[in-house]
Amino acid sequence: MIGIAEVARYAGVSTATVSRALSGNGHVSPATKLKVETAARELGYVVSSTASSLASGRMKNIGVVVPFLNRWFFTSVVEGAQRALLRNGYDLTLYNLTGDGIERQSVFEHFLLRQRVDAVIAVSLELTEDEIFRLHALGKPLVGVGGLIEGVRTLAIDDIAVARLATEHLLGLGHTRIAHIGGSQHYDLDFHLPTNRRFGYEAALTAAGIPLDPELDEDADFTIQGGYHAAKQLLGRPHGRPTAIFAASDEMAIGSILAARDLGLSVPRDVSIVGIDDHELAEFFGLSTIAQFPQGQGEKAVEILLDQLHPGQHDQVELNTPLPVKLIVRSSTARPGE
Amino acid sequence: MIGIAEVARYAGVSTATVSRALSGNGHVSPATKLKVETAARELGYVVSSTASSLASGRMKNIGVVVPFLNRWFFTSVVEGAQRALLRNGYDLTLYNLTGDGIERQSVFEHFLLRQRVDAVIAVSLELTEDEIFRLHALGKPLVGVGGLIEGVRTLAIDDIAVARLATEHLLGLGHTRIAHIGGSQHYDLDFHLPTNRRFGYEAALTAAGIPLDPELDEDADFTIQGGYHAAKQLLGRPHGRPTAIFAASDEMAIGSILAARDLGLSVPRDVSIVGIDDHELAEFFGLSTIAQFPQGQGEKAVEILLDQLHPGQHDQVELNTPLPVKLIVRSSTARPGE
DNA sequence: GTGAAAGCGCTAACAC
DNA sequence: GTGTTAGCGCTTTCAC
């Protein structure tokens, strides 16, 4: 292992100068800087991140905590975060909390607190007060993505507004019997996201003067399978079949499309279906949806954190811009048939 | 930040003893060990991983490099690896090589080599000789998952055998016009996986005395969309429609099922379809497939690496057990219709 | 079984 | 702008 001393000797300068030249902290004349860089390259020198971290207190590493990995939203956020971090010379350490609470406790007790990360991104994860307290106590910036965390800067779309917009899209087309497929209480662990989307749906109906019909509300688990099952129940009933379905996620909306097909119903002629996400399969299924941009959310989370870690070094992140969403109308929604 | 010194003082021992007691390296009397553990807990002490790494040379961190994240196979491997690492007190640093080659170079130049990881898992990634050489030069164990890497211990199913098995399943049911949807040359970047699966398909047909028909071979990109498009071409032709399709991945097989439905063909009555993977949606679509177990592959990769890092400390990993695969027959395959 | 002390390789004052 | 040097907080010989 070739160290900073060799580089210094080779370049004919001190180790301090090598450190400064390579890290960009502190002033070094352009000439020496070049000399050092050349020396480092020729010797194949790479800083020891542990030594560097120990001396500087900076890890150049941020922790990303997700509840699952096998979901489009989460992996997209991680991809976005990864890309932004790579650009800035940071590593991404991934903590996947799938499974029992023991894993979760372990992550907090022994990993995050082990001074391995400069900051933490919590994706769709409700942290306990204690967990937040401990992170704050360590001076670790923390940002949430995908749901509100008490007392923590969070990046999340306005679930109520988005659900309302989706429902209004259906109302605007002339639908009045609009069903909702949303999350069950069980799924409400993180952030009341299902609850908020239901609120948006109900608000839109109420504003349009349409009474809520509990018969038109089915629970599902945010998967294609779950959406399929729920839609079957809604669309299979002999009387009062809805003419439109608002599913709280694209996965469930896709399941609904498949359910409609299996029942011999045509989308959108017999039933219109709208989702939320703009999932990678949404276009393939012609699904009308409200796009959110999870990769962008991951990138933005990183920018916010880096801004906190190095104030003023980055383009000022617009902290208060609401997250973008976009209604994308494809072929799964139309005016109700006669 | 409370350090090892405080714990030592609090427990009335030396820092050396604290280190030994907490890390399990070296002998400490049960009594002192208990004292130290109590002290550490009461003071809320957590080792500084950077200091520990610098002093010991161990990072307790392994790097996982993937070409994408938004694919079921990759996230499954990562999940499995993560779980196994967590159990062993290791962190997982994720490198996603999506995008241009610059990212890739950057990962190798500035990240992996920065002494951040003890070992590397490369998932479905063909490494260059130079990349392998550099990792070996650093003494970093390396294991590949999902494809052979020259000169590197690799975990991969036998693609030829698996493809052959899938094809034989169709042959055994009595099919003779069996189409293949596989990867294009373009996708062949990593490991000739598509090529190997094609070989297996061809071998099965040849062994059964069935001549290969280039008309029955379509390229796709391993996505649902790609499989859909390819299957449409195969199933839409007026003459010589295949009675069965072997798709080289479940995503493409699912796309094929959807294509058949859209053409008004019934699966499996009009066309049988088999895939490879046992994707999370396979059961939902009733897809017959050859299961591989990516989570298990990720776990096993970790076990192999830990075994190399701490020889003899773990249950001996069976290095030479072939990776398990399993034919799962569901409702997408049947005898050909009349 | 336990303690003393010498590093691990770098960064950041502080001097010049 | 550059060099000197004292740590950063542990681990690990080497004594005892």
UniProtKB/TrEMBL annotation, chains A, B:
Query: Its domain of life?
Result: Bacteria
Q: Where is the HTH lacI-type domain?
A: 2-56
Keyword entries, A-Z: DNA-binding, Transcription, Transcription regulation
Task: Report whether Protein biosynthesis shows up as a keyword of the record.
Answer: no
Q: Does the keyword rRNA processing apply?
A: no
> What Gene Ontology molecular function terms does this protein carry?
DNA binding
The identity of this protein, by name, is: LacI family DNA-binding transcriptional regulator
